[in-house]
Amino acid sequence: MNKYKRLAVAFTGPSNSGKTTLIVKVSNILQDNGFKVCIVKHDPKDKAIFDKEGKDSFKFSQTGANVAVVSPNKTTYFKKQTSTIDELIDIFKDFDFLLVEGLKTLPLPRICVSRTKLDVNYFDVSDTLAIDDTIDNNTIPQGMNVLDLNNPEQIVQWIEENSKKV
Fold it and tell me: Within a domain: residue 37?
């Protein structure tokens, strides 16, 4: 019997809305409560840099091969193809919570993070909003669930109640 919850939730929203900051806070709270957390970040523009030019792992990766770097405290995996969420779940295997930033087409419960203004393009793929006091409450669609972006404990509670078993 698997002792892990294996629950997933996603975060979406425009650039610089606070998604990463919120995910870090949520991850820390969950881990402080004894849960194992995994995080997936979508990089739609393929601009993330995982190693520096000149390093061995960079040289290996430049060959086109998939590369794993194993050290005493971590394993870093450089794969030359995209991965599905199911493949990532298989790689992570044992976890309580999987926090996904982006990948708005995934059928996961989703929190839309917004600061300063709402972007209606995220409403159709979001189950709830996490906003701060810079958002005018009159601009929130009627019936949309709202969480306080500055209250990560409230957001963790929503995640515990609404995450999807994967």
Answer: yes
